Amino acid sequence: MHMFKRMAAVVTLMAAALHATAQSEGGMVLSAEAEKKIDKNLSVNVEADLRTRNDFKTLDRWSIGIGASYKLTSWLKADAGYILLDQNNREKITYEDDGDYNHLRPSYWSIKHRVYAGLTGSYKFSNGIKLSLRERWQYTYRPEKTMQRWDYDDEAWEDYTRAGKGKNQLRSRFEIAYDKKNALFSPYANVELYNAWGIEKIRYTVGTDIRLSKQHQLGVFYRFQDMKHVDADEYDPDMHYLGIGYKFKF
Questions:
Q1: What is the pLDDT of residues 50-64, one digit of tens each?
Q2: Distances (CA, A) of 183 to 14, 124, 131, 186, 211
């Protein structure tokens, strides 16, 4: 446990120190999951997720997904799934070459489809400390969307179509956790990198799972999301998240 406490403290300090002067927002992550064990190796799950931004004042997105995981060996697990997301895109103003306003696109909701597959390797020490590395590929597709935007030159609303777009990402997560059977608390700390021909964001997370009973589990965490290589004309700030999750096993 002492090794984990030191690791958690280091991760927390790193998150607090990163981009201390950069623009950032606070948000909440709420999730609920149901997991069914089919046999000793195979399990399936359904999960719902809701997030806020703008210092907890604005609903950012919601999602629902289904997945499955299979234990290949005692130390290697494979998983795959599908997630339906509905995202609240931020409003955006574009400018003319001379700096004058050109168009205002209000915030709007849009659907995204995501599929993923991954492998997780882990090693557990006799004292309950568990190290794991997860590599996950995900593909997200945003369908074409038509909305209205304000044209400052004509002083009128006009139709605007945002083309459909697909994106591949590799997510690499290293985690250290305390994983003792029937323990009340299972604390953890992890770092996750999002890579799409370059690091796009890094997540630092510290939290704990709380065992309420054999079937019911509660989770709480703090996460700092450090954005990298954001388009100059996009507002996509660093995020500080507080998270609460509930999991039911049957």
A1: 999 999 999 999 999
A2: 28, 15, 17, 7, 7
